[in-house]
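Worked example 3 (structure in, sequence out).
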C-alpha cells in the first residue's frame, strides 16, 4: 500500500480539468469558488523553478481552511481530515500528490507573506460585504478593536497584537493590521483606517482610539465615530465628568430590563450636547455629542445590586435616535474575538513566529467570516439563528455537508 503522500504522480501544477462549467450569465460565485479564488491569489513564497514542489500552495491553504471549518484545531487533525477525505478532495482537483506532511504545513505557515495574505482576505471579504449590505440596506457599523495572539510570545515577552475592523451588520472581518513589536494599537489603527471605506458609516472603538489623529482621519474620510472615553485622556475625561453635573441632557431614555447570565440589567442613556461640556473641542475637529451610559444590575440568585457608568463621545448629532444601540453593537467584535478563542481555539494554538501567528489569525478569521456569510445568504430564519459553534458541530459530521454548506451562492 502506497503512503498517502505518494498516491498520484501527477505534477502539482498540472491543469485542473475537474472544474465545473457555470452559466455564463451567473456572475455570482459560490462561497467555495470564492475561497478557492482567495487561496489561488495568495503569493507563493517558494522557488517554483527549482526544487521538488509537490503540492500547490492554494491546495494547502484550502486544506487548512476546510480542516478548520470541520472543527480541526492542530496541524495533525487537519492532516487526518485530509487523509480521510482524500478521494473527495481528488475529485475536486485538489491534493493530486496526496496530503502534505506536517513539516510542510509548518513551512507554509511560516513562509507565506502575512501582510499579503491578510490583504487577499480583505478582497475576499469585500465581495460578500457588498452582497449582504445591498440586501439589508441599513447604515453599516464598523467596530475596531485589537486582540492579542496569546499562543505566541515575542522576544520582548509580549504577545503580538492584531487590530481588526469588523462589520457588525454582516459578521465579516473587513481588514486587519498587525501592531509592530515595539508599538501599539494607536499607531496601527490609522493604517487600518486607510484600508477601509468609512464614508457614510459609523466607526465604534474603545478608549485606545480616542486620539486626535484617529478622530481626524475618520472625519476626513466622511465617517462618524462613537468612542469610549476613559482616563487615557485625563483632561477630557475628568473635564466632561465635572461639567455633566451642571447640564441637563438633551434627552434620556431607558431600555426594558434584560435577563441574561443570571442577572437582570436595566440600561439608561443620557445624551448631552458637547458644545459647552467639551472645552478643547477644536482639538477634536468640532462639536461632539456626549453619551452617558448607566447600567443597573441585580443578580437573580442573591439580589445583589451593582451599577456602572461609562462615557462615550460621538460625532453623531444629538438628535440621533437611541445612540445606545451603537454602544451595544460595539460589543459584537469582542464576541467575535471570544468566538475565535472558544470555537477555533486560537489562544491555545502555539506558534513560534509572529508571521505564523498572523497567518493562523487570517485563516481563522476567514473561517469565522464564512459562517457569518452563510447565515447572511440563507433565507431560513432558523438557519440564521444558529450559532457558530452549532454550525461547526453540524458540518463536521460529514464532508458532504461541508461542501453543500460552501456551495451557497
Amino acid at each position: 500500500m502506497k503512503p498517502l503522500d505518494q498516491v498520484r504522480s501527477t505534477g502539482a501544477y498540472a491543469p485542473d480539468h475537474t472544474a465545473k462549467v457555470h452559466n455564463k450569465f451567473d456572475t455570482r460565485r459560490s462561497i467555495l469558488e470564492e475561497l478557492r479564488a482567495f487561496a489561488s491569489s495568495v503569493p507563493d513564497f517558494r522557488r517554483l523553478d527549482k526544487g521538488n514542489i509537490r503540492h500547490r500552495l492554494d491546495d494547502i491553504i484550502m486544506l487548512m481552511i476546510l480542516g478548520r471549518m470541520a472543527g480541526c484545531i492542530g496541524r495533525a487533525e487537519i492532516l487526518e481530515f485530509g487523509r480521510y477525505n482524500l478521494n473527495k478532495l481528488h475529485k475536486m482537483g485538489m491534493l493530486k500528490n496526496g496530503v502534505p506532511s506536517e513539516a510542510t504545513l509548518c513551512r507554509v505557515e511560516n513562509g507565506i507573506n502575512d501582510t499579503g495574505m491578510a490583504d487577499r482576505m480583505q478582497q475576499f471579504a469585500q465581495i460578500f460585504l457588498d452582497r449582504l449590505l445591498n440586501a439589508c440596506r441599513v447604515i453599516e457599523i464598523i467596530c475596531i478593536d485589537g486582540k492579542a495572539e496569546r499562543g505566541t510570545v515575542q522576544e520582548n515577552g509580549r504577545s503580538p497584537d492584531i487590530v481588526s475592523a469588523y462589520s457588525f451588520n454582516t459578521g465579516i472581518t473587513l481588514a486587519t493590521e498587525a501592531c509592530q513589536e515595539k508599538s501599539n494599537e494607536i499607531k496601527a489603527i490609522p493604517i487600518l483606517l486607510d484600508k477601509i471605506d468609512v464614508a457614510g458609516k459609523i466607526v465604534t472603538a474603545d478608549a485606545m482610539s480616542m486620539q486626535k489623529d484617529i478622530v481626524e482621519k475618520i472625519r476626513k474620510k466622511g465617517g462618524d465615530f462613537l468612542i469610549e472615553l476613559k482616563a487615557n485622556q485625563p483632561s477630557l475625561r475628568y473635564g466632561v465628568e465635572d461639567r455633566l453635573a451642571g447640564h441637563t441632557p438633551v434627552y434620556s431614555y431607558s431600555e426594558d430590563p434584560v435577563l441574561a447570565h443570571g442577572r437582570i440589567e436595566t440600561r439608561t442613556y443620557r445624551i448631552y450636547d458637547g458644545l459647552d461640556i467639551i472645552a478643547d473641542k477644536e482639538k477634536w475637529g468640532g462639536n461632539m455629542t456626549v453619551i452617558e451610559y448607566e447600567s443597573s444590575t441585580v443578580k437573580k440568585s442573591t439580589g445583589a445590586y451593582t451599577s456602572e457608568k461609562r462615557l462615550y463621545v460621538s460625532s453623531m448629532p444629538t438628535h440621533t435616535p437611541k445612540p445606545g444601540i451603537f454602544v451595544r453593537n460595539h460589543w459584537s467584535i469582542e464576541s467575535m474575538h471570544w468566538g475565535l478563542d472558544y470555537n477555533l481555539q486560537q489562544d491555545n494554538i502555539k506558534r513560534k513566529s509572529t508571521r505564523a501567528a498572523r497567518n493562523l489569525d487570517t485563516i481563522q478569521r476567514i473561517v469565522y467570516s464564512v459562517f457569518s456569510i452563510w447565515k447572511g445568504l440563507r433565507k431560513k430564519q432558523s438557519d440564521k439563528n444558529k450559532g457558530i459553534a452549532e454550525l461547526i458541530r453540524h458540518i463536521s459530521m460529514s464532508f458532504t455537508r461541508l461542501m453543500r454548506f460552501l456551495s451557497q451562492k
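Notes: The radius of gyration is 24 Å. DSSP finds 14 helices and ten strands in the chain.
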